[in-house]
Design goal:
The chain is α+β, with helices and mostly antiparallel strands and 86 residues long. It contains four helices and four strands.
Length: 86
């Protein structure tokens, strides 16, 4: 497991108990899509949005690639994933 995916998983688990409600994602293009498909799509979107650090500050903060979260969000939306609070 890459360091980035581990960090995202750890952050998700740490924040899971912080809210009074859970945020889920539903695929409006295919309502039968489950967590496994969400995870694959998110991984693919993250890979597509990676870029090299451009500034000295980014190089100091990142050990490798930087993920553009706005591009990940747009990619996931293009695939039909929407936030759905349960």
């Amino acid at each position: 497991m890459s360091r980035l995916r581990f960090a995202l998983l750890a952050a998700s688990l740490a924040l899971a108990g912080c809210g009074s409600h859970e945020v889920h994602y539903q695929n409006t293009n295919d309502p039968t899509s489950g967590q496994a498909q969400f995870d694959r799509d998110q991984y693919d979107c993250e890979r597509q949005s990676e870029r090299l650090p451009l500034t000295d500050a980014e190089r100091a903060a990142a050990s490798s690639m930087i993920i553009d979260q706005a591009k990940v969000d747009a990619c996931m939306a293009d695939l039909g994933w929407r936030r759905s609070e349960k």
